[in-house]
Design goal:
By secondary structure, this protein is mainly beta. The chain has one domain: Jelly Rolls. The protein has no helices and 14 strands. It has strands at residues 4-10, 14-15, 20-21, 26-31, 33-34, 37-38, 40-43, 46-49, 53-65, 69-77, 80-89, 96-106, 110-118, 123-134. The strands form three sheets. Strands 1, 2, 4, 9, 12 and 14 form a six-stranded antiparallel sheet that branches. Strands 3, 7, 8, 10, 11 and 13 form a six-stranded antiparallel sheet that branches.
Length: 135
Protein backbone atom coordinates (compact mmCIF):
# COMPACT_ATOMS: atom_id res chain seq x y z
CA UNK A 1 0.00 0.00 0.00
CA UNK A 2 1.18 3.50 -0.82
CA UNK A 3 2.36 5.71 2.04
CA UNK A 4 1.74 8.90 0.05
CA UNK A 5 0.17 9.77 -3.28
CA UNK A 6 -0.31 12.93 -5.35
CA UNK A 7 -1.99 13.66 -8.67
CA UNK A 8 -0.66 16.98 -9.98
CA UNK A 9 -2.11 18.65 -13.08
CA UNK A 10 -1.86 21.84 -15.10
CA UNK A 11 -4.12 22.37 -18.13
CA UNK A 12 -2.84 25.88 -18.89
CA UNK A 13 -0.69 26.09 -22.05
CA UNK A 14 2.90 27.11 -21.29
CA UNK A 15 5.11 28.39 -24.11
CA UNK A 16 8.71 28.29 -22.98
CA UNK A 17 11.08 30.31 -25.15
CA UNK A 18 14.15 28.17 -25.64
CA UNK A 19 12.79 25.56 -23.25
CA UNK A 20 12.77 25.63 -19.49
CA UNK A 21 11.15 24.43 -16.30
CA UNK A 22 7.45 23.60 -16.51
CA UNK A 23 4.94 24.69 -13.89
CA UNK A 24 3.54 21.30 -12.88
CA UNK A 25 0.32 22.79 -11.53
CA UNK A 26 -1.42 22.01 -8.29
CA UNK A 27 -2.08 18.80 -6.44
CA UNK A 28 -5.58 17.72 -7.42
CA UNK A 29 -5.68 14.73 -5.08
CA UNK A 30 -3.30 13.31 -2.56
CA UNK A 31 -2.64 11.90 0.85
CA UNK A 32 0.28 11.32 3.17
CA UNK A 33 1.75 13.52 5.91
CA UNK A 34 4.92 13.39 7.98
CA UNK A 35 5.69 15.75 10.85
CA UNK A 36 2.57 17.79 10.03
CA UNK A 37 3.60 18.43 6.40
CA UNK A 38 2.56 16.85 3.11
CA UNK A 39 5.11 14.25 2.00
CA UNK A 40 4.60 15.33 -1.65
CA UNK A 41 4.08 19.05 -2.32
CA UNK A 42 4.35 21.55 -5.17
CA UNK A 43 6.27 24.83 -4.86
CA UNK A 44 6.53 26.85 -8.09
CA UNK A 45 8.36 24.77 -10.72
CA UNK A 46 9.40 22.14 -8.17
CA UNK A 47 7.82 19.08 -6.62
CA UNK A 48 9.18 18.39 -3.16
CA UNK A 49 9.45 14.86 -1.77
CA UNK A 50 9.87 15.19 1.99
CA UNK A 51 10.37 11.61 3.18
CA UNK A 52 12.96 8.98 2.39
CA UNK A 53 12.02 5.94 0.34
CA UNK A 54 11.10 4.81 -3.16
CA UNK A 55 8.66 6.77 -5.33
CA UNK A 56 6.92 5.66 -8.55
CA UNK A 57 6.27 8.52 -10.97
CA UNK A 58 4.18 8.75 -14.14
CA UNK A 59 4.42 11.87 -16.31
CA UNK A 60 2.53 12.98 -19.40
CA UNK A 61 1.76 16.09 -21.42
CA UNK A 62 0.63 17.34 -24.80
CA UNK A 63 3.34 19.30 -26.63
CA UNK A 64 3.54 21.45 -29.74
CA UNK A 65 6.34 23.56 -31.14
CA UNK A 66 6.71 26.77 -33.14
CA UNK A 67 8.83 24.85 -35.69
CA UNK A 68 9.24 21.25 -36.83
CA UNK A 69 11.67 19.29 -34.68
CA UNK A 70 11.98 17.14 -31.58
CA UNK A 71 10.46 18.14 -28.24
CA UNK A 72 11.76 16.47 -25.08
CA UNK A 73 10.33 16.38 -21.57
CA UNK A 74 12.97 15.60 -18.94
CA UNK A 75 12.59 14.83 -15.25
CA UNK A 76 15.37 16.00 -12.94
CA UNK A 77 15.92 14.98 -9.32
CA UNK A 78 18.05 17.50 -7.43
CA UNK A 79 19.50 18.71 -10.75
CA UNK A 80 20.31 15.22 -12.11
CA UNK A 81 18.53 13.81 -15.17
CA UNK A 82 16.37 10.83 -14.16
CA UNK A 83 14.17 10.10 -17.20
CA UNK A 84 12.90 11.70 -20.40
CA UNK A 85 10.60 11.24 -23.36
CA UNK A 86 10.89 12.71 -26.87
CA UNK A 87 8.43 13.16 -29.73
CA UNK A 88 9.01 14.52 -33.23
CA UNK A 89 6.82 17.44 -34.28
CA UNK A 90 6.27 17.18 -38.04
CA UNK A 91 5.03 20.76 -38.55
CA UNK A 92 4.62 23.90 -36.48
CA UNK A 93 1.74 23.64 -33.98
CA UNK A 94 1.34 19.90 -34.67
CA UNK A 95 0.40 18.31 -31.30
CA UNK A 96 2.05 15.22 -29.86
CA UNK A 97 1.77 13.37 -26.58
CA UNK A 98 4.73 12.49 -24.41
CA UNK A 99 4.46 10.18 -21.43
CA UNK A 100 6.94 8.12 -19.47
CA UNK A 101 7.28 6.35 -16.13
CA UNK A 102 10.11 6.81 -13.69
CA UNK A 103 11.18 5.90 -10.21
CA UNK A 104 13.40 7.66 -7.70
CA UNK A 105 15.04 6.88 -4.40
CA UNK A 106 14.99 9.66 -1.82
CA UNK A 107 17.37 9.53 1.13
CA UNK A 108 15.86 12.31 3.26
CA UNK A 109 14.22 14.87 0.96
CA UNK A 110 14.46 15.69 -2.72
CA UNK A 111 13.25 18.10 -5.40
CA UNK A 112 11.86 17.09 -8.81
CA UNK A 113 11.75 19.46 -11.79
CA UNK A 114 10.17 18.83 -15.21
CA UNK A 115 11.93 20.59 -18.10
CA UNK A 116 10.99 20.92 -21.78
CA UNK A 117 13.50 21.46 -24.61
CA UNK A 118 13.26 21.50 -28.40
CA UNK A 119 15.77 21.04 -31.21
CA UNK A 120 14.37 24.22 -32.82
CA UNK A 121 11.68 26.75 -32.02
CA UNK A 122 9.76 27.34 -28.82
CA UNK A 123 7.86 24.41 -27.30
CA UNK A 124 4.39 24.73 -25.78
CA UNK A 125 3.31 22.28 -23.08
CA UNK A 126 -0.33 21.65 -22.18
CA UNK A 127 -2.35 19.13 -20.15
CA UNK A 128 0.56 18.25 -17.85
CA UNK A 129 -0.14 15.44 -15.41
CA UNK A 130 2.14 13.86 -12.85
CA UNK A 131 1.24 11.04 -10.50
CA UNK A 132 3.60 10.21 -7.66
CA UNK A 133 3.25 7.29 -5.29
CA UNK A 134 5.55 6.73 -2.31
CA UNK A 135 6.03 3.03 -1.68
Amino acid sequence: MAKAYAYIANNTPQTLTGGGAILPGTAQHGFGCACGQKIISVAGNNINLKAGGYYNIDIGATVTNSEAGDVTLSLYQDGNLIASGTESIAAAADPASISFPSGVLVNCSSTLTLVVTATAGNPTVNNVYITIQKM
